[in-house]
Design a protein that fits this description.
Elements lengths: L6 E3 L5 H5 L3 E7 L4 H16 L5 E6 L4 H6 L7 E6 L2 E7 L4 H12 L1
Parallel strand pairs: 1-3, 2-3
Antiparallel strand pairs: 2-4, 4-5
């Protein structure tokens, strides 16, 4: 699952520091997940667009099952939105690019 240079590969080791960003989103996904493969290029594109405003990371649930469990991720993709280190929203399933862009804009404000 190759990500753009603007997307952080989030693991158990860097999760705490990542979520402390003013605004952050984690895309929980898996390499075997079809909808995740659809969402991935959208997340990569928006990570570049929102660089410096919203930190965007990806978690492979097979590599980091503890993180997935921490947020009760039962389906992939699931997006978890953070503001000042706290979860403010969570969305299981695929989000259209326009909807995700609006949510990121709101999160960044």
């Amino acid at each position: 699952m190759a990500a753009s240079a603007d997307v952080v590969h989030v693991t158990n080791d860097n999760f705490e520091s990542f979520k402390k960003s003013k605004a952050a989103v984690i895309d929980f996904s898996a390499t075997w997940c079809g909808p995740c493969q659809v969402l991935s290029p959208i997340v990569d594109k928006l990570a570049t667009e929102f660089k410096g405003k919203v930190a965007i990371g990806k978690v492979d649930i097979d590599e980091n099952p503890d993180l997935a469990g921490m947020f009760g991720v039962m389906a992939v993709p699931t997006l978890v939105f953070f503001k000042d280190g706290k979860v403010v929203d969570q969305h299981p399933g695929l989000l259209p690019e326009g909807t995700l862009r609006q949510r990121l804009s709101k999160l960044a404000s």
